[in-house]
Amino acid sequence: MTAPAVVIEGGYAVIRLPGAARDELAASLAPCPCVAAKSTATAEARQWLLDALSDPPVRVPLHEIHGLRVALADCPCRGPQPGNTIRHRLSAALGKVRA
Ligand SMILES: [Zn+2]
Questions:
Q1: Alpha carbons 72 and 83: distance in angstroms, whole number
Q2: Bridge partners of 13?
Q3: 73: CA distance to ligand 1 center in Å?
Q4: How far is the CA of 96 from the centre of ligand 1 (A)?
Q5: 19-67 tens-digit pLDDT
Q6: For the chain, what percentages of helix, strand and coil (3-state, to nearest 5) are there?
Q7: How far is the CA of 74 from the centre of ligand 1 (A)?
Q8: String of DSSP letters for 8-25
Q9: What is the value of pTM for the model shown?
Q10: What's the CA angle centered on 90, arms 84 and 91, to 5 degrees?
């Protein structure tokens, strides 16, 4: 499995994903159909990422990294998830970069 590559460039965290990982991530960003309360902020962050994925590389302003990582967390209805999903891997990669 390929890890997303995240580097700091010019005040942004720049995410590069192989095509297959990009497709996997895009699919995983679909809203969970459950009735659990959804955060508007995380829904907006996921939609932003989805839009950004269509025009790679994705550039995340450094102050948005935390919010994006929150948005990459799984819906609570899913319970414990394996730690190797594309969302986990991207969140981990974003957590390693330092402004
Ligand atoms: Zn859910």
A1: 12
A2: 8, 60
A3: 11
A4: 27
A5: 899 999 999 999 888 988 888 999 999 999 999 999 999 999 999 999 9
A6: 50, 15, 35
A7: 8
A8: EETTEEEEE--HHHHHHH
A9: 0.88
A10: 95
